[in-house]
Amino acid sequence: MLAVPLVRAGEAIGVILIRRVEVRPFTERQIELVNTFADKAVIAIENTRLFEAEQTRNRELQAAPEQQTATGEILSVISRSPTNIRPVFEAIAENAVRLCSANYGSTMRLDGDTLHVVAHRGHSAQWLETVSHDLFPRRLTRDTFAGYAISHREIVHVEDLQNDARFTDSRGLAHTLGYRTGLCVPMMRSGAPIGAIVVFRQDVRPFTEVEIALLRTFTPHASAAQPRWQRH
Amino acid sequence: MRWSNLQHACATYDAAIFQVFGDGLRLVAQYGRIIPTSGPVGQVTFPLVRGLIGGRAVIDRRTIQVADMLAEADETGRTRSNTVIAPCSPSLWSAPARQLG
């Protein structure tokens, strides 16, 4: 067995292993060949890394103007609706679905231990029938997708809600309504959860880091609008 | 240089490339079946420790050759029957813990 490290700028980033099934050590020449191969592998890995970094940067640059537009829209709604949180949450839901290339999205607010759907985008009449009227408002529980995110105060990204054993309630709903990949970002104010933004896709296609970051930028706006609503 | 060229030039039975991933090594390419696992390439990981020949090569940043893995396996206390029954088992891959130079 021969193990040759992959070294980039003095740092080992991997290793090549080659093996024979009989006892016959590799010659110096063969070891040199493997080292040459290792050098080429390092270059290939580095090129891949640079390409992926460039792709990520391009996506971020592309998303930045859209994010600024969305933020402007939401701030505008906040200024026009100082006493009504619904238009703000509607603007957030709409922009979340659009910028994250999702099929569905909702914004929820937490009132005590009860979760309410405030706004939604992309949902069908079936969703309104099933969720809006039958399931919400509902008590916050950790066995649901959004409930877990809010309770744990952390972003929850589920690749396939229809096959995730953690969220039994959400799994049934995902089968009924066709949700696959889901993302939930809790909204916080002064360290306490006040609601969540959720987006879903009909196919199994995880959200990118850029999309997750985009969604996070919306939560302060909802948090800023919340106290105004609570006062009225 | 391609895998097949390397395999031909070095007369190897099989080969694998691992990448450092956090505290472990992740299998990213395999020629033959040097690491017998049920998981696909990209999901198989091993801890980055000196007790594994690959781990030691990474940590020490040097090439390591073990002339006879079976002999090393015996010296580290593993039974010969294990290694003969499963000559390319993960335990054999990780065998030369103390004997590597």
Describe the 3D structure.
The complex is a heterodimer of chains A (232) and B (101). Chain A has 232 residues and is α+β, with helices and mostly antiparallel strands. In chain A, 52% of the residues lie in helices and 23% in strands. Chain A folds into two domains: 1-80, no CATH class; 84-231, Beta-Lactamase. In chain A, the strands form two sheets. Chain A has a six-stranded antiparallel β-sheet with strand order 5-4-3-8-7-6, sandwiched between helices. In chain A, α1 (28-80) packs antiparallel against α2 (85-99) and α2 packs antiparallel against α6. The mean pLDDT of chain A is 84. With 101 residues, chain B is of the alpha+beta class. Chain B has a three-stranded antiparallel β-sheet with strand order 1-2-3. Chain B is globular. The termini of chain B are far apart. At the A-B interface, β1, β2 and α1 of A face α1, β1, α2 and β4 of B. β1 of chain A pairs antiparallel with β4 of chain B.
Describe how the helices and strands are arranged.
The complex is a heterodimer of chains A (232) and B (101).
Chain A: E1 2-8, E2 11-19, H1 28-80, H2 85-99, E3 104-111, E4 114-121, H3 125-135, E5 138-139, H4 145-152, E6 156-158, H5 168-177, E7 182-189, E8 192-200, H6 209-231
Helix pairs in contact in A: 1-2, 1-6, 2-6
Chain B: H1 3-10, E1 14-21, E2 24-31, E3 45-47, H2 53-60, E4 64-65, H3 69-75, H4 80-85, H5 90-93
Antiparallel strand pairs in B: 1-2, 2-3
